[in-house]
Design goal:
It contains no helices and eleven strands. The chain has 125 residues and is mainly β. The strands form two sheets. Strands 2, 4, 5, 6, 9, 10 and 11 form a seven-stranded mixed beta sheet that branches. The chain has a four-stranded antiparallel beta sheet with strand order 1-3-8-7, with no helix packed on it. It starts with a strand and ends with a strand.
């Protein structure tokens, strides 16, 4: 089993920055991909970014490309999401997710079997 814990959420003004962290424990050697998803009020959960243990180029959703950066340390057991130039539309609960399988499509929610509890990000104008 893999357990994930997110941290770093909070309230910021538009244009500000925030860094989220996700720490994995358990069978971390089996992790192949880590990702960030988010869910805003009244909207379905959407993928934000993905990073892979094999060192492939990270993937970003168009809505955050150029503003968010995903990175890792300790192999892939610790993952960060650096968020810059935040806008109100970024307000959501952000979830860390992991899979122990090699996947083709970058941000398909059913592909990720392990999820954190989420951390709230609120951006005000």
């Amino acid at each position: 089993q893999i357990q994930l814990v997110e941290s770093g959420g909070g309230s910021v003004q538009a244009g500000g920055s925030l860094r989220l962290s996700c720490v994995a424990s358990g069978n971390t050697d089996s992790i192949r991909h880590m990702a960030w998803f988010r869910q805003a009020p009244g909207k379905k959960r959407e993928g934000v970014a993905r990073i892979s243990s094999g060192g492939s180029t990270p993937y970003y959703a168009d809505s955050v490309k150029g503003r968010f950066t995903i990175s890792q340390e300790r192999g892939i057991s610790t993952v960060y999401l650096q968020m810059s130039n935040l806008i109100v539309e970024d307000t959501a609960i952000y979830y860390c997710a992991a899979t122990d399988r090699r996947i083709i499509w970058p941000l398909q929610e059913p592909d990720f079997a392990y999820w954190g509890q989420g951390t709230q990000v609120t951006v005000s104008s």
